[in-house]
Amino acid sequence: MTDTAERDEERQAEQSARERMRERRRVAFAKAERVLSRPGLRRTIRERLAALQEAAPEVYDLDRPADMYGDGIVADLEERVAALLGTEAAAFFPTGTMAQQVALRCWAGRTGDRAVALHALAHPEVHERHAFSEVSGLRPVRVTSEPRLPTAAEIRDFEEPFGTLMLELPLRDAGFVLPTWEELTEVVEAARERDAVVHFDGARLWECTVHFGRRLEEIAGLADSVYVSFYKSLDGFGGAALAGPRTLVEEAKTWRHRYGGMVFQQFPTALSALAGLERELPRLPDYVRHARVVAAALREGFAAAGVPWARVHPGEPHTHDFQVWLPYDPEVVTEAAVRQAEETGTFLFASPWDRGGPGLSFSEVAVRAPGLEWTADDVRAAVADFVRRLPAG
Questions:
Q1: Angle subtended at Cα 366 by Cα 360 and Cα 371, rounded to the nearest 5 degrees
Q2: Contact call for residues 51 and 38 (beta carbons, < 8 A)
């Protein structure tokens, strides 16, 4: 067998092993009796439709006509979002990727500068296949790659000119981190000193109120425009909104059509978004506060179990999502997590584990409604049971 054939066989074997593990994780999660979070995306179609059918009569008049090209329930949702964020208007988009490209394209036309200053870990830089430059002709410039939001000094001293500063709140790939309120206001002021506009990637903005100690409209009011997601925090079927000045939103709706975002009917997605605003949005502060209880108990549990290097990041979560880091390869901790779920019905670490370096892995932990039932003692006991499934030493 040639070297190439051997490598192909090894790759196929690795791919097959990954697929088998994904299926084990899926089945284990579906059967698990105890989890910290059970988002809608992990449920069956039947379960999702049943949940929406239960919530729908509470949030909208189902005897009204269905939407067509953005009227009806979609327009009502846009008004609701604008009111929550304190902006003049809002536009519904099928995806956040489209919403942000359109927003930043519109700002580039107004400022005359296609450069967008952002973090190296910002969603468009990591997860959107260079859509800014390939599709919209924008030019991303990276202000920093540090695992935190940019500082006011970095914005003031940045050598390249830019027309728009984009801030992801929270910065997911750095551990769902946020600046302090004072730091955020200083960064915005620094951008304005450079005559730049400020856009918030607020996919998870809904869950930031506890950390900042501010209302949604006060947070959104710092920026010139804001994008929010309806499925990441609110558990909707999908969709996003762009909020800001009425003139910007009207221009964005024109570009939404040009980008193919004028979907004929979107009432299922809009209805699930309204249900999320009604049911999940009021619960988010409780999730954030309990995430801090869970994070502390995880840290204490790993210390008591004698794991030589374990980290919860941030130490006190800024939102209801955070990271856990362990000194093992991803395959090792994934096997331990899945076996714990299969054998006990408790899936403590249900999200995938990613490689963070040689012999180092991290996973994301989210605390939602099911997690509120866990006491600190429950978390510590689950950690001890999980560690027993890891290799000794």
A1: 125
A2: no
DSSP-assigned states of every residue in 145-206: -SSSPPPHHHHHH-SS--SEEEEESSBGGGTSB---HHHHHHHHHHHHHTT-EEEEEETTGG
What are the φ/ψ torsions at residue 84 (nearest 5 degrees)? Answer: -65, -35
Q: What is the mean pLDDT of residues 62-74?
A: 96
Beta bridge partners of 244: 89
**DSSP symbol at 324:** E
Q: How many CB atoms lie within 10 A of CB 10?
A: 10
Q: Give the pTM.
A: 0.94
Could you tell me which of 344, 358, 335, 368 has the C-alpha nearest to residue 42?
Answer: 368
CA-CA distance, 13 to 175, in Å (whole number)?
A: 32
Residues 6+ apart with CB under 8 A from 239: 92, 93, 94, 95, 229, 230, 231, 266, 269, 270, 273
Could you read off the pLDDT of 168-189 as tens digits, one per residue?
999 999 999 999 999 999 999 9
Q: Is 23 helix (H, G, I), strand (E, B) or coil?
A: helix
- Per-residue pLDDT averaged across 107-111, rounded? 97
User: Average pLDDT, whole number, for the chain?
Assistant: 95
φ, ψ dihedrals at 364, nearest 5°: -95, 140
Percent share of the chain, pLDDT over 90: 93
